[in-house]
Amino acid sequence: MTENSPYTNTIVITLLFFAFILFSTFFSPDGMIGSFFTGAIEVAPFVLLALFFMASKDFPIFRRIAYLWQVLIIMFLAIVIWGMSLIALVPPDIALSENFEALEGDMDLFVSIIIITIGTLCTVLLSGACLLRQVAEKVALYIPIDPDSDLHRGGLAIIMALILLPLISLASTGMPILLSDAHLEGMAVTESMSSPFTSLTSLVWIVIASFLIAGLFTGRTLPETLQRLGLVRPTGEEVGIACGTGVVLVGVFLAIDFVIKIVFTTLGLPTTASYEPQLMLLFAGALTIPGAIITSIVAGFGEEISIRGLIQPRYGIILASLCFAALHAFQYHWDGVLSVFLIGLIFGWMRTRWNTTTTAISHTIYDLVFFSLIMAGVAGIG
């Protein structure tokens, strides 16, 4: 490998992802090709951000580009989630008819809009503050980041946005926004999630993005990247531990979820169970044997490689588990988010004790057993 090859690789990878964005934007392909390019678009902003920060070590101009790109990503996430939350708040008959005059005088809706708008703006400011060295120095007392690293501070800002924006959406709307009637009826969520090819494409791009953000071709060799992500060939003992833990955790969390549901119900708080019909629609594609297998593999390996493999070693178990839980706030209520956070802590400990491969297998087995119980009518999806 020549001395200049990391820079060349950075440029080539950057151009490839820009090509994906341009092709998908101007040609909007349908079918499998469209799903393939959509998967690339979903991870492209984060890959490009990492590449810009990496390039800034040798080309200072990229530091300004990276910070500008960082702001655009956070603003885009904020606007999208803010907009989806507003859609969830508006009754579907009014949204589809666009008869918004019927909403005049609805103070509850007005207050909810004010809350989510203020919360979104505060999140943008707080996430942006993570880019400041002074803030990163305080955070570095608790997690293993380098406050002098633009890449580490940029990652922290993105993670804070990914944690706070979904939670603010859930708090302000009072519902998981993907389970709202407006989204289920108007955006055809069930159809988009039912395609096995779409799910597998998503996994492929999550893995590619995680490897590239971890520095593959631009600072690390493949063996070094695998080590950074905690991906190893598991021993027979580790496979047994992973499979056994996955099965045991299903029983453990059925009990934990039952207790959490009782506590929430006693306190008069809404639970995910009240959205079970909507959840059945959302996860319809996963409630078949092929769908359950594919969904379990995609979630198990995709989430573990990106959360426990990429994020946790740099930002710690707590932030990684909070990010993991918050991203489920689009489909679960607070009781479900709490449950996901708790199991995230367990997977996080397993990552520290063994490796990401072990947690990915365990996560896959957990989801597969859980979906099997749902299809057998033994457990509820909420």
Report on the architecture of this protein.
With 382 residues, the protein is mainly alpha-helical. The chain has a domain at 230-382. Helices cover 76% and strands 0% of the residues. The protein has helices spanning 5-27, 31-55, 61-89, 92-97, 107-129, 133-139, 150-173, 181-186, 189-193, 196-213, 222-229, 236-266, 276-282, 289-326, 334-353, 356-375. α12 runs antiparallel to α15 and α15 packs antiparallel against α16 (356-375). It is globular, with a radius of gyration of 21 Å. The chain starts with a helix and ends in a 7-residue tail after the last helix.
Which range best describes the helical content: under 10%, 10-25%, 25-40%, 40-55%, 55-70% or over 70%?
Answer: over 70%
Number of separate strands: 0
User: What is the makeup of the main sheet?
Assistant: none
Number of helical runs?
16
H/E series: HHHHHHHHHHHHHHHH
Question: First CA to last CA: what distance?
Answer: 52 Å
Rg measurement, Å: 21 Å
Strand content: under 5%
Q: Helix/strand-derived class?
A: mainly alpha
Low-confidence stretches: 189-194
Rounded average pLDDT: 85
Shape: globular
